[in-house]
Amino acid sequence: MEKLPFRSGRRGTHNGQNENGQHENGHGQRGRGRGRLQGDRVREQEVRRRAQSQEHSQRDADRQRGGARGGARGGGRGGHRGGGAERLRFGGGRNEQPGGAERQVMRAGAEGTGARRGGHNGDRREGRDGTDPSPRKLGYKTLEDLSKQEPSVVAITLSSNPGFRALLGETPMRPDLVQLICLVVSKAFTSRTDRGTLQHLANIIKESKFLSITLLHYVGGMMSDSNQTRRAQFPQHLEYITAILLEVLSIFPASSVNTVNMLVTLLQASINTLRASGVDFLPKVEEKMETLTGLIAHLQEKSREGTLRTDKDTYGLLTNVDDNEGEEQEDFRNIPLYPTPEEFHQNHKPFLRQNLTSRRYTNTHLYLDTHFRLLREDFVRPLREGIQQLLQDQMAMGRNDNPLKKKRFDDIRVYFSTYLVVPKCTHTGLAYIVQFDVQPLKFVRWQNSKRLLFGSLVCLSYDNFESFLFATVSDRDPKYLEKGQVQITFTEESRVKLARIQKNQLFLMVETTAYFEAYRYVLEGLKEQTEDDLPFQRYIVECSTDVLPPAYLRRRDVYDLSDVAKPEHKNSIRPFNSLDVDAWPDMEELGLDESQMKAFQLALTKELAIIQGPPGTGKTYVGLKIAQALLTNKDLWNNTNSAPMLVVCYTNHALDQFLEGIHKFLKNGIVRVGGRSNSEILKQFNLRQLTHSQHFKRTLPTHLRTAYNQIYRQLCDEERAIKSQSLKLECSLKGVMRETFLQRFMLERHWMNLNSPPMEDGFEIKKKPNLMMEWLGLGSTPFQQRESETANGNEAEEAMEEEEDLIEIEEEAELIQAERMIEDGWTIGPRAGRDDKKKRNMEEDVRKVEELMLAMNLDNVDTRAEQNEKVWEVQKHQRKKMKQKVRHELGLSSDMTDQQEENVFDVWSLNLKDRWRLYRLWVSRYRIEVRTKALESEEAYQNAVDRMADVKRQENLHVLREATVIGMTTTGAAKFRKALQEVRPCLVIVEEAAEVLEAHTITTLSRACQHLILIGDHQQLRPSATVFELAKNFNLEMSMFERLVNMELPFVRLNYQHRMRPDIARLLTPHIYSALENHPSVFEYENIKGLNTNLFFLEHNHLEEEIKDGKSHQNTHEAKFVVALCQYLLLQEYKPEQITILTTYTGQLHCLRKQMPASVFSGVKVHVVDKYQGEENDIILLSLVRSNPQGKVGFLNIPNRVCVALSRAKKGLYCIGNSGILSTVKLWSNIFHTLREKEQVGRALTLCCQNHPNRQIKASKADDFNDAPEGGCTQPCEFRLDCGHVCTRACHPYDPDHKEFNCTKKCEKILCNEGHKCTLTCHEICPKKCPVKVEKIIPQCQHTQMVPCHQDPGTFICGEPCMKLLPCGHRCDSVCGRSCSTRCIVTVTLKLRCGHNQQGPCFYKTSTEQPECKVPCKHQLKCGHDCHGTCSKCYQGRYHAPCPQRCERLLICSHKCTEPCTRDCPPCRKPCENCCVHSKCKRECGQSCAPCIEPCNWQCPHQSCSKLCHEPCDRPPCTEPCRKTLDCGHPCIGLCGDKCPTKCRFCDHDDVLEIFFGTEDEPDARFIQLEDCGHIFESTAMDQWMSEVNQGPEEQQVAIKLKECPRCKTPIRKNLRYGSHVNRSLAEIEMVKKKINGRESDIVEQRKILKNQWVENQKICQIYIPKEDNEIQAKLEKTYLTASDLWILENKIDFLIRVAKLLKVRNKKMLFTDGYKFRQGVNQFMSWLNNTSQKFTDQQVFDLQRELQRLNLLAELNVRCHIADTKDQMRKMQSEVQEIRHALEMPGQFTDQDQLNVKEALKSLDEKFPATGLGISEEERKMIVSAMRMPPGHWHKCPNGHVYVITECGGANQRAKCPDCKASIGGENHTLDSGNRVATEMDGSQHSAWSEANNLLNFDPHDF
After folding, report:
1. How far is Cα 88 from Cα 65, in angstroms, rounded to an integer?
2. For the segment 1834-1861, what is each residue's pLDDT rounded down to a tens digit?
3. Closest CA to 1012 of 435, 1417, 611
């Protein structure tokens, strides 16, 4: 027998949860959200200045976390959290808990994010911040020792030590301990660098008893303390306390104001009392008390105004209207870094000053102010002007995105339909993957595009930039960008705003091209730079040309340069006085030329040295000499404190070069800080590498190790929690989700409906693993058949040919990113070397979750559908279309609305477009729930990351302070600015100084700097500004290097170039450099092979093309020529590494790459000129690109760029460009003049054959190189090879001995005895076995096949069609050599069990399975409509498909009935739309509305209403004209007391005067605007319309209804003018609602009856139908039930009780086989009964009753069979039973006649085989049992079956003889004699009733 699960009890709370589904902590209190600890702290001096500051908020009070956020977590954040807080409205009680599928995902996610991460996946007994529940408290001695440490040490120790939190929770506390705590905490708050740590510390104090209890007692006790020693210390202690309070209040103004206010009040009283008793207080205490009082008053005022929200909202704490606004505006330190809304929406003209380049600055403040404003404007202006243009265009285009998507903006890049996809845990904090609409950007080549580069600033808004969020791009992968995804990190303030924005919000995202991170660090540095701390003001600000020696050299100037000298002069050089010019050694001894020697002397003897190094002059060489001299004489400049040398370079490459040079003479003490380094030598000196070394770990202070471990544990916990949710979010957009994961987010009827799909063509589908795929049209039916529905414009992508692998070009985007990305020395995760493993684990987790969640994964689309046993192969192009279709649909943002969802009756009847819209709605709900769950962990994670950053900053400082040389890029120096201020390098060398903006150089310098050396060349590349106007008119692009040179400060230019051959150097001198001499080495270069010149400029006039994305250009003609020339040079046996192709535009890079397959050009470098400064190569091919009718040369007219382009080549330089337009530039004109002197310019380049020097080719275009196909000429080679063949190539200069040549002629070798020749080419190795195919006979079948010569035909699989016949008579569809198929798929006519014939596969004839019968039902239903089902859908007429005919009748509420065919429309389920000025009805439309009893608001100066809101008004409408003026300045066209219409008689003339009633054009006409729909009508006509009784023919049918708008038929509900009409109609409607819903008293009574009925039968229902029992109980407890609801419940209860009784019978009185089949029948009946479309219509009730009657009779038959089986009678009655069973199991409805026939048959069976077997009828048996009045267990029978009774206890205590057969009956000692047994057939008992225990066994325990 089948066992049913027995469930006791009910679902309760889990794992320490309370009934609301929330967790409790260890103290039984509900844990509160700790709130993210962000926000700039308000410094007290800022408050004293009364400047507007910022304060930041945390979450609302009900989400604040207290202490540790722990408590038992119940297996992690993804598990159960109870019901309340996280339930959705969908699906009722069934859907409250995560389903099995979802739990699988939780487990899959936990596998990697739990056990793999340090074993934190078990019971998490730690709190949210990683603390132990019962940590050891910090002791007095520990605190005392801590008070002597540095502030940063104190701050980190307190914030990370769990013992401190425990200490603060201790009450009461000794006064001396309180004093010590205040001292230590106030000291911690003086640390200004560890911001995240201080915020966390302030939160610990704010949430502790120390602040709320202990300090109150301590401060209050001061007044009564008589100890004179302590009283004398109180002023100092009060200073500590006020400092702490000010800090806590500044960081958490909203949540701490009340507690701090109480303390301040008590403090003031104590101060007054102590002062009165003679205690003096320091002015600091008074000032802080005044500041606290003012701040509290300000916050309390905001609280009263309702504008004090939470701790992270930004508003000014204190303002003073009397402040001089002009002066405030002048102070650049008060200007915010980020743009403000006012800047976007107003015509904002910022105040700017020009960078002074020809005169000195008047003061340092002006200098800093100028650079701050210019730099800020450089990144703000593109964003500001771009957004202003965007807003103007939106206004002009009516806010339609489509035209905007095609528009290109000059200053910004716009991304539409942007939304957050998934949070990501990064080492800098929480980031988000965002998705944007990539369709308008299909043209973008993301690999080389400058769009969305790392560090770029993006601005997101959803309300036209009334508010916005700022973020920076924190990771960029071109592969994901192509899909429209990028990772961004929000700014601190924006993270707070984001938490308040709904989770599925769509944004407009705008990008500015500026690298914001660099701007931010520099701008912050300028703000923090004080005038007094700026070094070298004498030169930088005042521009003094009298440069002094370094301060350290003025004390002692003895240098020893023996280590710098040439090896042969090392011993001869002695120490000397460097300030004595004559004492210096000779330049030859030091290995320097004349200019290099001057530069060397200048650098060592002047505190500010400027060295200009033209191309090839060895400025890096000189720089390294200078660095070596300084480092070997370190005791001169580093004798007081250990200060390192700082080396700053503009690029990573230059930094690597310089530090590698230093490493040659300094093996230890180097620290490289920055991004990508390609140097293996420097790898060991990388800051990150050093902080992970064993030496570092040993020397690291204990407090940092402890803090790191504690915070790291918390990071792992939070990361695990976030990732478990992130995995789900990520997967939800990677493909099509399985329906089981979306079940909780569907309406219950849609879930049931989805699981009942319609039949498909073909055969029966028994199992659909991918139901969602089937529903979305992606299933087993070939995809192309489904495309017709969505073919409107979704054209397939053109088939892409497989392109050849092209060379790798270091894209400009990658190069820019490499300079931007700065490693700061740590990552989340185990300390070192585990990143790759972690990534692999993460990928494995993602893969597992994808398998569980996704029915279709876009990253791995299966090639076949799973739904059918017949595998449908999906061709490659179809699969591509399917993938494209799904990606397109997932990217759309048009979800179905909740209202539209409610109106969907059958999800299978929707078209594909609407199915996808509904699917997106379900996914959207799923994502919102997951995002909400992750929010709390996101806050805690960010908080921990901020604290970890403080710890890492201290760790980095620990390394940097021990360094001798620190190397940084300018970007790194900006980021590590604060660290540099603490390290205080006294000596700074800036390489490439002329490429760096002056503001960057300023922030690199610290006050301790005594010596600054600037090396560069301002005549090569300059710094670049974003805004051209600022570069042109404000001199922003001038570096400090160039400005100081222009101001005539002393500098040295290096004059000897060691790179270019003289011909090339002539192009620079005198055109760019006045003097540049050639070193002898450059005269020794050999000539370039294959060409008749080493320098040439090829002229052409082929036009350029513009690149669609960006402002770049390309020139295909130039690209083809340069590539052909490069290939020609490679054929001259030049190595690829010797050739570099340069171009002046990034667009040309891609054009070049497309022409350069990797197989030919691998190793050739291709670069943009700007990224090649400082590099060189033997041969340079230069493409200048520009060629246009307008004669524009772009930046080719900038001498700096031309200088770089022409100075990279050592041996050969070949340029191609349009000399015509270039000649308009004076510089180029002079260069062309120089070239023509030696005929090095022309329309064609001459190629010379090395083998035949007399043969020359003039090449003016790429095709001309075809005349030198192998690099020589067109003559044949004719060289005889070792194999005997002749070389087939044309003349080639490479491989003259043909050692590498492969002969391609046909091989002539014989392979086998048959004489077959080798089929390969001559150079290939011949095969060992002959592969030639010959005819052979296959022995198994005697077929002739083409078989390889070497193969035995017995092993060959014959490919002839199989000729065998299957058992059905049809031919096998396999091939001869393979096994025959087992299923015949030939289409034949099938005879189905239902009696119908149908076409289908032949194998069904012998299969137990049956295809679904598709014959239409056509039965006339009880409603009068024909049934639309099929034979199978209607179960052969047993239970008909619901009538799909829509009702569409107009309900009393004016909505249409959405139910399917129904006799009586049920109450409307839509949200009620009734509302008034006071409130809105929140009930369903069909429920009665509670009348509003507020006073009526209809008032005007002339009249007023005295009635309640819901009553008809007692005043007439006012007819006086409205006296108000509209925004446009014209008078209002409305009436007094009514809402002013939005239209104007003049501005909207056509709309207002459009004739409708006919009275609109009267001159004194007044208008009413209906608030429900917005239409405007003339007032007198509208008043008349409202007063009419009927509106038309429809009104006669539905007399009771709301009046409607004459134009659009929208019901009128809101206008106060027509309140009387509306209220009267609503009152009538309410009466009708009550009638429909039933009287409340009747409903209460009926509900009670149904409850009682269910309670009476609940025991049996709980056992046999537990699921339905729960559902019925829930429905009976619903707060609102209508008469219709009760009707449905009544029917369902009746049927369920009868089913439960049948199941009880089945459990006890049926044979196993019969019971199993009976249960299947009951299950089928229950599926009909529980169907979501079950409304108990006449047809449904009829069908259910007939089926239940069938089940009743079947149960009766099964019970009879069970009884017969116990008596061994089954064989005798087998034929009769089979006949009855056949009648009961026949297809079709069970008719009355069928019922009568079965009953007759059962009666006949009773007569033949009485059920009792006693020879008496059933009635007689009952009479005997009743007459004897014996309880169960007293009736027995003898061995021959004769019945007797044992009286008394029922146990056998004596023997007797049977009166009928004389057999022994009875027994002794309560034991029956052998053969005697209980007569079960008399009363059903199973045991003798001789004891209470035995007797109980005769009863069903469930009956008690």
Report:
1. 25
2. 888 888 778 889 888 888 888 899 988 8
3. 611
Reduced to 3 states (helix: H, G, I; strand: E, B; else coil), residue 597 is helix
Q: Are 1469 and 1485 in contact (CB under 8 A)?
A: yes
CB contact at 8 A, 1037 and 1023: yes
DSSP secondary structure letter of residue 1480: B
pLDDT above 70 coverage of the chain, percent: 83
Contacts of 110 (CB under 8 A, 6+ apart): 76, 78, 121, 720, 724
Helices (H), 1348-1484: none
| CA–CA gap between residue 1343 and residue 1360 (Å, rounded) | 8
Residue 1004 contacts residue 522 (beta carbons within 8 Å): no
> What distances in angstroms separate CA 444 from CA 439, 475, 797, 1161, 1267, one per listed residue?
10, 18, 16, 25, 37
Identity of the residue numbered 937: S
Q: Which of 470, 451, 469, 471 is nearest to 513 (CA)?
A: 451
Residue with tokens 């790291």: 712
What's the pLDDT tens digit per position in 550-597?
988 888 889 999 889 988 888 888 999 989 988 999 989 998 999 999
Q: Which residues contact 191 (CB under 8 A, 6 or more apart)?
A: 150, 151, 152, 154, 155, 197, 198
Nearest to 244 by CA among 222, 224, 225, 267: 267
Rounded CA gap, 109 and 102, in Å?
A: 11
1604: left (phi over 0), alpha (psi -120 to 50) or beta: beta
Do 1124 and 1285 form a contact (C-beta atoms < 8 A)? no
Report the pLDDT value the prediction gives residue 815, as an integer from 0 to 100: 61
- Separation of alpha carbons 890 and 895, rounded Å: 10
Phi, psi dihedral angles at 1835 (to 5 degrees): -85, 130
d(CA 1286, CA 1252): 19
pLDDT of amino acid 869 = 37
End-to-end CA distance of the chain: 23
Beta pairing, strands 469-475 & 608-612: unpaired
Question: Using omega within 30 degrees of 0 as the cis cutoff, is the peptide bond preceding 1516 cis?
Answer: no
The answer to whether residue 604 scores a pLDDT higher than 50 is yes
DSSP letter, residue 1153: H
As given in the structure block, the two tokens for residue 1458 are 């959405």
Q: What is the DSSP letter of 226?
A: -
Long-range contacts of 594-598, Cβ-Cβ distance < 8 Å, separation of 24 or more: 594/1055, 594/1056, 595/1052, 595/1053, 595/1054, 595/1055, 595/1056, 596/621, 596/622, 596/625, 596/1054, 596/1056, 598/1052
Per-chain mean pLDDT for the chain: 80
- DSSP classification of residue 1080: G
- Compute how many other C-beta atoms are within 10 angstroms of the C-beta atom of residue 593: 19
What are the distances in angstroms from CA 1130 to CA 1159, 1291, 1649?
Answer: 12, 15, 98
Residue 559 CB contacts under 8 Å (≥ 6 apart), including other chains: 575, 576, 577, 578, 604, 629, 633, 636
1667-1703 pLDDT, tens per residue?
A: 888 888 888 888 777 777 888 888 888 889 999 988 8
Cβ neighbours of residue 1407 under 8 Å, at least 6 residues apart? Answer: none
Residue 1804: band (very low, low, confident or very high) from pLDDT cuts 50, 70, 90: confident
Going by C-alpha positions, the residue among 420, 430, 436, 423 that lies closest to residue 481 is 436
What is the chain's length? 1904
Structure-token pair, residue 1142: 């340069």
Q: What is the pLDDT of residue 1760?
A: 85
**What is the C-alpha separation between 592 and 598, in angstroms, rounded?**
9
* Contact predicate 1279/1300, CB 8 Å: no
Name the β-bridge partners of 1390: 1398
Model-wide pTM > 0.90: no
State mean pLDDT over 1001-1023.
91
Longest dimension (CA), the chain: 152
Burial of 688 (0-12, 13-18, 19+ CB in 10 A): middle
- Take residue 1756 and report the two structure tokens written for it: 């009766």
Per DSSP, the three-state class of 1581 is helix
